[in-house]
């Protein structure tokens, strides 16, 4: 019989093929440690960030699976279904951390943001990608289109330590869309400096921002340096 892991948002399960009928679901404890380790090792080798190869199909493995599915144009379920598992094992599997710039995103110096991939690229004037990585956004607030970084609605275009008006800092905030939408580090608590969620959730659909584009601390620094002058931002679905 053939066992394929399924890593969903909730309790993991496996699909058992050829014993009790196609699509039968078994509880998480039916997963073998070796199966999960194989998946984790492959995800890490492809730059998907699955974390420790410990045989435990936890949140980091599920997030890594979403990034893999995103990079390989698969449904972003976080589940290692038969299609995802087969693609993961294939020699043609695409990396998570190095992705081609989406077509029809224009030319020249720009930032390109793909909402479908939960991904961002910083591209210099020669068309070279100087940095790329995962994001958290919210398409409900940010529409596809072309924007320019800078002051909007009478508000500063760049704020090193912005605040949500409450208990959070939005570090290295770079505004690019009216009126309050911009890039910034994952929000941190004023009380202890900790982020409100982990970096491993970037590049997934497991969180939604309040409209802004959340990135890692290092990516926020890169964007801050990249946007010292008005910079085109291309938002794509």
Describe this structure in words.
The chain is an alpha+beta fold and 237 residues long. Helix content is 19%, strand content 27%. A 5-stranded mixed beta sheet has the order 6-5-4-13-7, covered by helices on one side. Strands 8, 9, 10, 11 and 12 form a 5-stranded mixed beta sheet that branches. Strands 1-2-3 form a 3-stranded antiparallel beta sheet, with no helix packed on it. The radius of gyration is 19 Å and the shape is globular. The termini are far apart.
TL;DR?
The chain has helices spanning 33-45, 59-71, 82-89, 217-226; strands spanning 2-6, 13-17, 24-26, 110-114, 119-123, 129-134, 145-148, 158-163, 168-177, 181-185, 188-189, 213-215, 232-236. The chain has 237 residues and is an alpha+beta fold.
Q: Give me the secondary-structure category.
A: alpha+beta
Total of helices: 4
Helix content: 10-25%
Query: Within the largest sheet, what's the order of strands?
Result: 6-5-4-13-7
Oligomer: single chain
Percentage of β-strand residues: 25-35%
The tally of beta strands, per DSSP, is: 13
Q: How do the SSEs run, as a string of H and E?
A: EEEHHHEEEEEEEEEHE
